[in-house]
Structure formats: structure tokens, C-alpha cells
């Protein structure tokens, strides 16, 4: 490896990160829809001409490397000229799912392509059978929206009007979506300008060399962290409740093989391709794998192609992780969460004391619709919630938070009620939901929303009802998730984790309970004072303290009964050994 | 007569004494006394009398900045506090909107909640989103809650009910009962602190107010005792996070307003001196030991933001917008797998940089600056600490130069370069990324280490003027003497603009204004004129977040031109986001009003020129750029440089608290107020010194 000036690499690295961040700010400053501007569901990146990732803005974990596959596809397929812009969303040609529209622009210096600026944005609607392009019971990709194969939207700086018009004619909210596409293009234009500035400073060839050094550097760091783990093959499996059509579990099988700083993730044994929209195409599988690997290494390592070089992925054909067109895939996010958590569980076997309790691994989402009281004006709500994280040797898992692949803000109770004829009756932790352990899993949450007016529809899309988060190193599993419809007349319908367009009436309450995280270590060696604190805080019940943790409190519940606890724990320990 | 500004820092308390007759100032520092801030004030008053001949009776205005609340929150040393919420939502405070502030960390911890769940009570009451009462707060329920509170080991209580910004009666009824029955408790209600929607942010802010209140009452008591004993007869004011002043009484009820006043004071001071010197656009860079605070001032105006944060909690009170990065004089340089990293780890004040000789072993950016000749080892803090250059060189040699295969001086230069690239990224964030061109701004460094990096930062980011204020190390205290009383009120009213009448809007604004008049009236009467600015937070229907649009000045009772307001929103949206949608319906979200009550302020007068020839106090070898090698250059004492003086770099200017290398190709001059101006030529080679 050529000896590189370490200072220049560090300084240029800072500049590149600042550039992809500025590109991200540009999207948010110019986007029309709230999904990109407020929830930051977009990502910006720079690639080399072959489609190797140079730098990417860290907004949402699930965007790890999602653009890489598409960038390589674009790099291979087109002879790009200055001013060209390629647009695409084709989930079987490098895309993720329909709403994620990607744009790419080459950057030239002295007539030679040196880089590619790219942006991915999640769009409000891209046509298809249902508004928002996320039909939970879609049977193929054609029902899920407009498919844009990689094609030039600009040729040498000139807009190809026909392509623009074709997209515009196929979507429900053309003004917002086309505005958002223009925002993505504004971002890649900023990226192009900043890379050209760097070329003027360092020369095209000089910059290329520095970038190669950056990629090598990240690769060395990742390999260094991975090689600290023992070589070997580590298996794990995880299950989803169903595919939304048949009430059968979906299996994710992974074999993680570690060898001197390289890792292979083999999905052989995973369920065949499913009928419902929970299949995961390559870009999404890669994102889940890269994301899981990043949880295993130093999070400060700069994200670029070097991070992915030590990672290989083996996919069984026609499976849930390697579907064939036109299998539907709009709900792939739920599968990605399960993949990431399952990989973490496989790594657990190599990580000894650094193993962690499982994540709740689901995105509890529900949508509801209706009309505003006294009008025919329709409303649609889409809400997502998280659950508990696994315990670790450093402490309890965090409570009520989005999973490994997501990070966004909840909807405030007051914001929800101001905008919709709904009322939030409860938004709180669920006692005993965290898996018991020396370090407890984080708590799941309960959100109860009352429907106030008229009649409408409700769709539940959740997970973890049948498969709660498992514990590690003697830690115990969390409580599962539960969803139910509580009717005004006092009756109660328990709901499966995926159900579409149920009728809901004024006075009914949707009750969403999410799973906690898995515990770490034997709960019977948890510090009794920590158990006491949990009981005082109502996070663990006195009964669970006794039965799961072997901790007895004095009669008024304010202190640990030390001798009774010692006796009970000894007894539980011996029972356990039997 | 005199004005005295007092800024409490971690190590020193800074005093700035303004002589109104002469228009000049004297500055001094005393050791801070964190356990009893009164002791430092007492020492400072004595020093003013002994060294400057100013008795407390000659001081008309006493302005105080405190970080007691800030430290209480950061160190989790506030009072044990309870929270009472609407039934069903007591965990909102701990759920923290489900957000995590760092990615890819399985062992992540969220900021520890300031009120444990066992101290969070629920009251059976409910107000709907339209302000109607769904379930009244019954007398029996008040009884029950008061009884439950009585048994908790707490000193303060926060009351936060849903939609209290529409109907505060429930919060007030419970607070009245607590005040009457449980007199040992400090009570805060959310309607008084942040009457706006989004319950988590309102809860966190209200809880921090309660949590810091007992400590700030103690500060207020000490302050009155010390000033009373010294027979001070002037007006006492407190600097707030919004850069304005408030009364001591207001600090007792609104301690949360001081949480971010530390960085605010410096920015106010920077804006004040720059504006007086005719420099309206500045980027301020306050470099401390572990971090640097960056702010943007445009047209002399400080940017306020309606919400900020501290220790991972949101603080929803208007405050000076400051961007903090982990780069300071104590930032540690390390070689990590072949690359040089500087910060965010810091040697802090203890053990400090290697050259302090207090046990530090890892080289810092201060050690690098010392090795390059930017700092005189015998004149650090005016000679108070003797720096060990040999130790700094040895640390850089073994920990940076050898691993990277560089010469020692190249390694020191590399540390400075990497540090500068971090600071440049921070400045880009508040300038380029917010749509401002740095070339239209001057760079205004202050704090001990700001001047060390200013020349290189300016070259990299394209700033062509550096403005080094007089008294850079006491700018916060000086700023306190240059600002007015400032109070803000707000209320949430979410309604489409087409569905609210001009009269109703006017009535809501008038209510805010009369509330502000009462707020100002509770303070000391030293204000001659008061201005009220109104603004509205608005958004397109369906957007999640709003933007703030100022209203033109108006009289009480004057109707509001809603069409003009709508147009102003579209214009502002265009400016902020680059687009607008004039056919889309626009929604009102919050109404805001700020009162600025003018008070007498320090106005510095130009200094007299001097015809005395200026001589350097010495000469030393300095490494500015690798390609130029070590250069002999003149070293000047800043105090010896009269207005009108100028010279070309390379040279170094020193003062007791700071040192400024002037790079080859840069030109420095002294303006009529004694500020240093450095002109930086546009460089084609930007970024690669």
C-alpha cells in the first residue's frame, strides 16, 4: 500500500463528510413533503465512477449502503457525460422499494469522471394500488407503484421532458413528488460543485488517490475490529409472525463466518420467497447486513466502501431475502429489522461477555383513516412506535425506542390530537415487558388511541407477537407485542400482527403494546437494589421481582428483605440446576 | 458612576467595570467559588474598591451571569423533584420522543431522567385539543395529589397537563393548593414556562425549571445579602439565555432562563463591540479548553432560536443560537491506525496539556501551538503558568511524529491543521449550510485560544477579515453591559389563517403584549422605553414543523393584516427553503412577542492615538507554513499598539490571556477602539498551508 499523507487524508475526509451533510441540508431546505424535510427520510452520498461509496450522510441507519448497489449498476450501464442525471427506483435493478427514488450525477474534472453524487429520497406516493404506495396485501410489484428503471432524466444538462412527464402522470401528488425530485437534484448539484472544488485544490488524480486512501483506512479499521473476534461459524435464526397473507412464520436463518477480519453472512435456510410484501431485495438485504456489522465495530469509523469490503453475503435463490421479480416488497423494512437483529444474535456467539439481549426488532405501525367531523374531508394517519432494546454488560437496555434500523421522533400526543379526531388515552411503559436479566431488557410501550368520530378504517402492521426478544447469557425473553381493538361497548378484539382495513367506529380504542428487549445475564444475580428501584418505579412488579429475580421485598415494599432474598435465590438456583 | 458586569466561569469570575464619565473600562478576575458564588462577588467588590477606587455606592448597575443552573443540570445535582401529569402520560418525560442521539451503539444510554418514575404522579383531569374540559380536576383529586406529594422526599414539583397552553386553570388550581399546603415545595407550572404544544419539550423545560429553582433561590439570597452588606444601592440584573437581562425576582421564578446564558453572554459581547466598530456581519468563535462555540451575527443582530438543548434535554425558551463542537485548546492529538485525530477527547483543565506540567501525557493542540512558537512559554496567562516546551515537544515526538514518520515540527503543524479542519466544518455548519456566504462575514475569535487558529481558519473558509476584540477574555462580562432587558411570551393557536379573524389575532397579540408589560413592570424601573416585537410561527397545512415570521410593528388594538401576513410567510418560506406554494393553505401555530426594555448601556469611546514609536518587545522563531520553514519574527505586546498602527505578518501579538500569530501575507492593524483587524488575502491555495 502506498504511503499517504495522513494529514491530507484526515482533512479531505472532514471536507467530504461536510459535503454530504450539506447535500442533506439542501434536500431538507428544498423538499416539499414533510417526510423528507422533517423526518429526514433521505440520504446523500458520493461515489467513485465505479460506484464505490466515498462518503455518506448518516441520517437513518437503514440507509447504510442502500445506494451502493444502484450506483454500481448505474456505473456499469451508462457512458455518463457531464450534466447527465440518472433517475431510478426499480427494486430489482438496484432499488429498495418503490417510494425510494434515487438520482445520480457524474462529476468531471478535465474531461475525466472522478466521482458521482447521489441522493435517495423516500417519496410520499409513487402511484400503485394504494395511496402512499404501501399496500400491505400487495401480490406483486406492479400493484405497489410506478417502476422507474435506471434512465437519464437529464442529458448533458438538458431535462428530458418525456421522462419527467411520464413520472408526473403516474403519481397521486405530482406537485409534491416532483418538487421532492427537484430537491434531490439540487442536492447532487451541490455535491458536484464541492467535489469540483476539491479537484481544483488537489487535482483529479490527487483526489482519487486520497479517496483510495480513505477507503483503505476504513477497511483497515473494520478488519481490525472484526479480527478481534474469534474465527468460526456462528448460526442464528429469527422469525417474523407472518407474511401478511398466510398466518405462517417467516424464517430468517443466518450463518456468520468470521475469518481473520472478514465476515460472510449466509442466509441459506431462510424461508422461500413470500406471497405478501415482506420480501427483501438485494439493496435492502445489504443495508441490513452492513447496518448489523456497523453495530459490531467502532461506530466512529467513516462510512465508505472500505467498510463493506470485508463483508460477503450469500443468498439462497427465490427466498425471502432474494426474491424474484415481480414478488412484492413494500413492507421490507420489517424484514430488515429482523435480519439485523438475527445477525447480532449470531455475532453474540463470538462476542462472549459483549453479547447483547435481542432488540424488540419491530416497527409497530398502524394507519387509520376517516373523515373530519361534520365534513366529507378525509384524513389518513400513519403512526410508528418502537419497543425495548436488549440488556448489555454495561447496563439495562433502553426503553421504548425505535429498532436497530430506524431512528425518528414519535408523534406528540398534542400534535396528534390537534390534527386528527383522535385522543391518546395512554402512552406509557409496560410493566414487566423487559426481559429479566442481570441487566434487564428495555421496556416496551403501550399507546392507546381513541377514535372520536364517525367510522373509518384501521390497518395494523406489526411483529413480535409470536416471537418476542430473546435474552442472552442466562437473560430471559421480553413480553411479546399485543394489539387489540377495544370497543366502546366493552368488548375486545385481539388482533393478529398484520391486518388490513378493519372497520373502526367512534369510541373504539386501538391498543398498541410493543415488545421489550431481551435480558442479559441471570436475573438472579441482578443487584437486589436495582430490582427494588425497578419495583418502586413500577417497571417491574413485586411478583416478577420475586419469581423472576428471586428478590423479596419487606411488607411495605420499600426495602429488600435481604435474608429472604438470599434464601429464595439459593432455592431458585438449586431448582434451576435440577 | 459605574456599571459592573460579573461573569461566573468554572475557574475565574470575570469583572468588567465601566466608567460612565470616561467611557472606558477596567477588567479583573478573581477565583470562582462554586459552593458560594457570593464569596467571589464579595472579593470582586473589594478589589474594585482597593485597586480601582470604586466603592459599591458608586455602582449604579450590577449585572450578573450565573452557571449554577447549568451545572446543576449537567452534573445532575439539582433538587429532588416531582412531576404531576395528566392521567396516562406520566412516562412522556422518560420516553424522550423515542429518539436516540447516537447511531450504531447497542449499549447506548439515554439521558437519565431528572424525575424518576416513582416521583411522577398522574392527576385525573383532561382538556381536549379545542380547549374544552373533558374531565374537570375535582377538589377531591387535588386533595389526593397533594397528599401523595406530601409523602415524597422532594423539594420541587413541576405540573404539566395536556393542552394547558389552551386552558391553564387545572395546572394553576393544583399549584395553588400545593403552595398553600406544602410550603416547603418550589412549584412550577408549564403554562408559565413554555405555553406551547408538544408535551415532551414543555415537560422537560418545566421540569428543569423546578429542578434548578431551589439552587437559584439560594444564589439570589446570597446575592442580595452580599450586595446589601456592601451598601450597594443600584439595580441588579441577571443575564439570560436570550442575551437580554432580567430581574432577580424573575430569576427566582424562571431559573430555566439562565441555563444557556454562558455562551449567550459572549455572543452578546461580540455583537456589541463589532457593531460599535462598524462591523455588522461576524462569525464568532469562542475557543475554550474542551470545546468551541460558534455563532453567526448578521446585520448586527444575534440569531435567536426558540429551542436549544443541554445534557441531552430540550430547553424550549428563546435563546442565542450557538453551535458547539468538541475542539478546544485541550483537544488531544492521537494517531489512530495511521491517521491523525485531534479531539473530541480533551485533557481539559486537569491534567491539561502536557506543557502545563500537571501530569498530562498526551499532546494537545495547545502543546502544538507552543512548539510552533505561537505561544511564549514564559507569558501564558500573563506569566501565571510557566509552560514546559521541552515536555510538549517530547510528547509530540513520540506520540505523533514517530508513528506518522514526520519531523517533530511537521507533526505539530499537522495537529494544528487537523484542529483547524474540525473548526472549519463547524463554521460551515452555521454559515454555508444555513445559506450564508462566509466571505461576507468577519471572523471574530475570542476566549483564550481563538486567535491561535483564526489565520488558518480564515484562509480555509474564505473569510478576508479577522476582528480580534479588545479584552477578548472578558467579552461575556462586557456583553452584559451592552444589552437590554428582554422578555418573551408565546402561545399556541393552531388554526388555518383563512379561519381566524383579524380581530381575534389582534386580541391574542394584545394579551401577549400586556403580559409582557407586567413582566417588565415587576423588574426594577430603569427602563425609559420599551419596544414589543410580534411574530408568528406558521406552516403549510400538513407540515410537521413551522417557521417564524416577524410582524410589522403595531400598536395595541391595531388590527392585523392577514393577507400581508400570509404573503410574508410565503416569502420567508422561499428564503429559508428555496420554495413556496402560494396555493397551499397556511396555518398559524404559535404567536410570539418579545419585549425589549432599553436600559443605559456601556458605550466605549475611541481611544486616543499615540505618536510614540512602537517597538517589538522581542523576537522569536515561529513555524507558520511548512514551505516557508522557521522564520524569525517580531513579537509585540498588544497594549503597546496604538490606534492606527499596522504591520505585515509574519509576527506575533501577545496579551495576558491570549496570543495571536499573524501569518505571512496577512496584514494587521489597530482600529480606533483598540480592536485588532487582520486582513487575509484571498488564497488560491486555500486549505493547504
What does this protein look like?
The complex is a heterodimer of chains A (578) and B (689). In chain A, the strands form four sheets. A seven-stranded antiparallel beta sheet of chain A has the order 2-1-5-4-3-6-7, sandwiched between helices. In chain A, strands 14-15-20-17-18 form a five-stranded antiparallel beta sheet, covered by helices on one side. In chain A, strands 8-9-10-11 form a four-stranded mixed beta sheet. Chain A contains 13 helices and 20 strands. In chain A, 31% of the residues lie in helices and 22% in strands. By secondary structure, chain A is an alpha+beta fold. Chain A is globular, with a radius of gyration of 25 Å. The mean pLDDT of chain A is 92. Helices cover 30% and strands 27% of the residues of chain B. Among the domains of chain B are: 134 residues, Rossmann fold (3-Layer(aba) Sandwich); 113 residues, 2-Layer Sandwich (Dna Ligase, domain 1). Chain B starts with a strand and ends in a 10-residue tail after the last strand. At the A-B interface, α1, α5, α6, α7 and α10 of A face α3, β22 and α12 of B.
Structural topology:
The complex is a heterodimer of chains A (578) and B (689).
Chain A: H1 6-30, H2 34-37, E1 42-47, E2 53-56, H3 66-77, E3 85-88, E4 100-109, E5 112-122, E6 151-155, E7 158-159, H4 161-168, H5 174-202, H6 204-227, E8 232-240, E9 250-259, E10 262-266, H7 282-296, H8 305-308, E11 311-314, H9 332-351, E12 364-371, E13 378-385, H10 413-419, E14 422-429, E15 445-451, E16 455-461, E17 482-486, E18 492-495, E19 498-505, E20 509-513, H11 528-536, H12 542-547, H13 562-577
Parallel strand pairs in A: 10-11
Antiparallel strand pairs in A: 1-2, 1-5, 3-4, 3-6, 4-5, 6-7, 8-9, 9-10, 12-13, 12-16, 14-15, 15-20, 16-19, 17-18, 17-20
Chain B: E1 2-8, E2 12-19, E3 24-31, H1 37-52, E4 59-65, H2 68-74, E5 81-86, H3 92-95, E6 120-123, E7 126-127, E8 133-135, H4 139-150, E9 156-160, H5 169-181, E10 186-189, H6 190-193, H7 199-229, E11 235-239, E12 245-247, H8 248-253, H9 261-276, E13 282-287, E14 292-298, E15 301-302, E16 304-305, E17 308-310, E18 313-315, E19 319-320, E20 323-325, E21 331-336, E22 339-346, H10 365-371, H11 389-404, H12 408-430, E23 442-446, H13 450-461, E24 465-468, H14 475-480, E25 485-496, H15 502-521, E26 530-540, E27 547-550, H16 562-577, E28 586-597, E29 618-623, E30 630-637, E31 646-648, E32 651-655, E33 658-662, E34 667-670, E35 676-679
Parallel strand pairs in B: 1-4, 4-11, 5-6, 5-9, 9-10, 13-23, 30-32
Antiparallel strand pairs in B: 1-2, 2-3, 7-8, 11-12, 13-14, 14-15, 14-20, 16-19, 17-18, 21-22, 24-35, 25-28, 26-27, 26-28, 29-30, 31-34, 32-33, 34-35
Helix pairs in contact in B: 1-7, 2-7, 4-5, 10-11, 10-12, 11-12, 12-13
Amino acid at each position: 500500500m502506498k504511503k499517504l499523507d495522513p494529514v491530507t487524508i484526515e482533512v479531505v475526509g472532514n471536507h467530504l463528510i461536510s459535503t454530504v451533510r450539506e447535500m442533506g441540508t439542501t434536500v431538507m431546505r428544498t423538499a416539499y413533503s414533510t417526510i423528507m424535510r422533517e423526518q429526514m427520510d433521505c440520504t446523500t452520498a458520493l461515489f467513485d465512477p465505479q460506484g464505490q461509496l466515498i462518503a455518506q450522510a448518516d441520517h437513518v441507519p437503514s440507509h447504510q449502503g442502500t445506494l451502493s448497489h444502484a450506483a454500481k449498476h448505474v456505473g456499469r450501464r451508462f457512458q455518463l457525460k457531464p450534466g447527465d442525471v440518472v433517475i431510478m427506483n426499480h427494486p430489482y435493478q438496484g432499488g429498495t422499494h418503490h417510494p425510494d427514488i434515487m438520482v445520480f450525477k457524474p462529476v468531471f474534472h478535465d474531461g475525466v469522471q472522478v466521482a458521482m453524487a447521489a441522493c435517495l429520497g423516500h417519496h410520499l406516493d409513487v402511484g400503485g394500488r394504494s395511496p402512499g404506495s404501501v399496500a400491505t396485501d400487495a401480490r406483486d410489484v406492479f400493484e405497489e407503484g410506478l417502476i422507474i428503471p435506471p434512465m437519464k432524466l437529464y442529458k448533458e444538462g438538458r431535462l428530458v421532458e418525456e421522462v419527467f412527464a411520464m413520472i408526473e402522470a403516474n403519481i397521486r401528488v405530482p406537485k409534491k413528488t416532483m418538487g421532492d425530485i427537484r430537491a434531490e437534484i439540487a442536492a447532487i448539484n451541490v455535491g458536484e460543485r464541492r467535489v469540483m472544488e476539491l479537484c481544483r485544490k488537489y487535482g483529479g488524480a490527487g483526489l482519487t488517490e486520497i479517496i483510495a486512501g480513505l477507503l483503505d483506512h476504513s477497511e483497515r479499521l473494520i478488519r481490525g475490529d472484526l479480527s478481534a473476534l474469534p474465527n468460526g461459524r456462528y448460526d442464528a435464526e429469527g422469525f417474523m409472525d407472518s407474511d401478511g397473507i398466510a398466518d405462517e412464520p417467516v424464517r430468517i436463518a443466518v450463518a456468520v463466518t468470521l475469518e481473520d477480519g472478514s465476515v460472510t453472512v449466509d442466509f441459506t435456510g431462510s424461508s422461500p420467497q413470500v406471497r405478501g410484501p415482506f420480501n427483501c431485495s438485494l439493496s435492502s438485504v445489504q443495508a441490513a447486513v452492513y447496518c448489523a456489522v456497523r453495530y459490531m465495530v467502532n461506530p466512529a469509523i467513516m462510512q465508505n466502501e472500505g467498510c463493506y469490503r470485508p463483508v460477503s453475503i450469500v443468498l439462497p435463490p427465490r427466498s425471502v431475502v432474494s426474491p424474484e421479480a415481480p414478488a412484492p416488497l413494500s413492507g421490507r423494512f420489517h424484514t430488515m429489522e429482523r435480519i439485523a437483529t438475527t445477525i447480532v444474535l449470531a455475532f453474540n456467539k463470538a462476542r462472549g461477555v459483549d453479547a447483547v439481549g435481542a432488540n424488540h426488532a419491530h416497527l409497530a405501525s398502524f394507519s387509520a383513516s376517516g373523515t373530519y367531523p361534520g365534513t366529507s374531508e378525509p384524513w389518513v394517519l400513519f403512526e410508528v412506535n418502537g419497543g425495548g432494546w436488549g440488556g448489555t454488560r454495561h447496563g439495562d437496555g433502553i426503553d421504548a425506542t425505535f429498532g436497530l434500523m430506524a431512528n425518528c421522533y414519535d408523534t406528540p400526543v398534542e400534535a396528534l390530537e390537534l390534527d386528527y379526531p383522535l385522543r391518546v388515552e395512554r402512552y406509557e411503559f409496560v410493566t414487566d415487558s423487559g426481559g429479566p436479566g442481570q441487566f434487564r431488557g428495555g421496556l416496551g410501550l403501550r399507546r392507546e388511541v381513541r377514535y372520536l368520530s364517525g367510522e373509518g378504517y384501521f390497518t395494523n402492521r406489526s411483529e413480535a407477537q409470536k416471537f418476542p426478544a430473546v435474552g442472552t447469557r442466562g437473560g430471559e425473553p421480553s413480553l411479546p407485542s399485543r394489539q387489540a381493538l377495544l370497543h366502546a361497548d366493552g368488548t375486545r378484539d385481539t388482533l393478529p400482527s398484520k391486518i388490513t382495513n378493519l372497520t373502526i367506529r367512534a369510541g373504539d380504542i386501538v391498543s398498541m403494546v410493543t415488545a421489550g428487549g431481551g435480558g442479559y445475564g441471570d436475573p438472579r444475580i441482578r443487584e437486589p437494589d436495582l430490582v427494588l428501584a425497578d419495583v418502586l418505579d413500577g417497571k417491574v412488579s413485586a411478583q416478577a421481582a420475586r419469581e423472576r429475580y428471586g428478590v423479596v421485598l419487606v411488607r411495605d415494599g420499600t426495602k429488600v428483605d435481604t435474608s429472604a432474598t438470599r434464601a429464595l435465590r439459593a432455592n431458585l438456583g438449586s431448582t434451576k440446576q435440577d | 458612576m459605574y456599571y459592573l458586569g460579573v461573569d461566573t466561569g468554572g475557574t475565574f469570575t470575570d469583572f468588567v467595570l465601566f466608567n460612565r464619565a470616561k467611557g472606558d473600562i477596567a477588567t479583573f478576575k478573581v477565583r470562582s467559588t462554586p459552593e458560594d458564588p457570593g464569596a467571589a462577588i464579595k472579593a470582586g467588590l473589594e478589589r474594585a474598591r482597593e485597586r480601582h477606587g470604586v466603592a459599591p455606592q458608586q455602582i449604579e448597575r450590577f449585572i450578573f451571569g450565573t452557571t449554577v443552573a447549568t451545572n446543576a443540570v449537567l452534573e445532575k445535582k439539582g433538587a429532588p423533584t416531582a412531576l404531576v401529569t395528566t392521567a396516562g402520560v406520566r412516562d412522556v418525560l422518560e420516553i424522550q420522543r423515542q429518539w436516540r442521539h447516537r447511531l450504531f451503539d447497542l449499549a447506548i444510554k439515554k439521558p437519565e431522567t431528572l424525575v424518576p418514575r416513582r416521583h411522577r404522579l398522574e392527576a385525573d383531569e383532561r382538556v381536549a385539543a379545542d380547549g374544552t374540559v373533558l374531565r374537570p380536576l375535582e377538589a377531591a383529586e387535588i386533595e389526593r395529589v397533594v397528599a401523595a406529594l406530601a409523602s415524597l422526599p422532594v423539594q420541587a414539583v413541576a405540573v404539566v397537563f395536556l393542552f394547558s397552553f389552551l386552558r391553564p386553570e387545572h395546572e394553576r388550581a393544583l399549584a395553588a393548593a400545593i403552595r398553600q399546603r406544602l410550603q416547603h415545595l418550589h412549584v412550577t407550572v408549564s403554562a408559565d414556562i413554555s405555553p406551547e404544544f408538544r408535551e415532551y419539550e414543555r415537560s422537560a423545560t418545566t421540569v428543569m425549571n423546578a429542578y434548578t429553582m431551589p439552587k437559584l433561590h439560594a444564589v439570589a439570597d446570597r446575592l442580595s445579602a452580599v450586595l446589601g452588606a456592601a451598601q450597594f444601592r443600584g439595580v441588579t440584573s441577571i443575564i439570560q439565555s436570550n442575551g437580554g437581562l432580567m430581574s432577580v425576582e424573575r430569576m427566582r421564578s424562571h431559573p430555566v432562563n439562565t441555563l444557556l446564558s454562558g455562551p449567550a453572554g459572549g455572543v452578546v459581547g461580540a455583537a456589541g463591540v463589532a457593531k460599535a466598530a462598524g462591523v455588522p456581519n461576524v462569525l464568532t468563535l469562542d475557543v475554550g479548553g474542551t470545546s468551541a462555540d460558534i455563532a453567526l451575527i448578521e446585520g448586527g443582530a444575534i440569531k435567536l432560536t426558540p429551542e436549544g438543548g443541554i445534557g441531552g434535554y430540550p430547553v424550549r425558551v428563546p435563546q442565542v443560537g450557538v453551535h458547539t463542537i468538541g475542539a478546544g485548546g485541550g483537544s488531544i492529538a492521537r494517531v489512530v491506525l495511521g491517521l491523525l485525530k485531534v479531539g473530541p477527547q480533551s485533557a481539559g483543565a486537569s491534567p491539561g496539556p502536557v506543557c502545563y506540567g500537571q501530569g498530562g501525557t498526551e499532546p494537545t493542540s495547545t502543546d502544538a501551538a507552543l512548539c510552533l512558537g505561537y505561544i511564549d512559554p514564559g507569558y501564558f496567562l500573563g506569566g501565571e503558568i510557566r509552560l514546559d516546551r521541552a515536555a510538549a515537544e517530547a510528547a509530540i515526538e513520540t506520540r505523533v511524529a514517530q508513528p506518522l514518520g514526520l519531523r517533530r515540527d511537521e507533526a505539530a503543524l499537522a495537529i494544528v491543521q487537523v484542529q483547524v479542519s474540525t473548526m472549519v466544518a463547524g463554521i460551515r455548519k452555521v454559515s454555508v449550510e444555513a445559506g450564508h456566504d462566509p466571505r461576507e462575514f468577519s471572523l471574530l475569535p475570542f476566549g483564550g485560544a481563538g486567535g491561535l487558529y483564526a489565520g488558518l481558519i480564515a484562509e480555509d473558509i474564505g473569510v478576508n477579515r479577522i476582528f480580534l476584540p479588545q479584552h477578548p477574555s472578558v467579552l461575556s462580562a462586557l456583553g452584559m453591559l451592552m444589552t437590554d432587558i428582554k422578555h418573551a411570551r408565546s402561545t399556541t393557536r393552531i388554526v388555518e389563517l383563512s379561519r381566524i379573524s383579524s380581530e381575534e389575532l389582534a386580541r391574542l397579540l394584545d394579551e401577549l403584549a400586556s403580559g409582557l408589560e407586567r413582566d417588565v413592570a415587576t423588574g426594577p424601573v430603569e427602563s425609559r422605553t420599551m419596544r414589543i416585537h410580534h411574530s408568528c410561527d406558521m406552516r403549510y397545512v400538513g407540515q410537521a414543523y413551522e417557521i417564524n415570521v416577524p410582524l410589522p410593528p403595531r400598536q395595541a388594538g391595531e388590527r392585523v393584516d392577514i393577507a400581508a401576513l400570509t404573503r410574508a410567510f410565503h416569502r420567508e418560506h422561499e428564503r429559508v427553503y428555496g420554495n413556496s406554494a402560494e396555493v397551499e393553505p397556511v396555518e398559524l401555530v404559535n404567536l410570539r412577542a418579545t419585549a425589549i426594555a432599553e436600559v443605559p448601556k456601556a458605550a466605549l469611546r475611541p481611544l486616543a492615538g499615540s505618536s510614540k514609536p512602537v517597538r517589538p518587545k522581542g523576537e522569536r522563531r515561529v513555524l507558520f507554513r511548512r514551505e516557508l520553514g522557521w522564520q524569525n519574527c517580531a513579537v509585540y505586546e498588544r497594549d503597546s499598539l496604538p490606534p492606527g498602527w499596522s504591520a505585515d505578518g509574519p509576527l506575533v501579538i501577545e496579551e495576558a490571556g491570549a496570543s495571536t500569530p499573524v501569518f505571512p501575507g496577512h496584514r494587521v492593524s489597530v482600529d480606533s477602539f483598540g480592536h485588532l483587524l487582520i486582513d487575509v488575502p484571498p488564497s488560491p491555495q486555500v486549505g493547504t498551508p
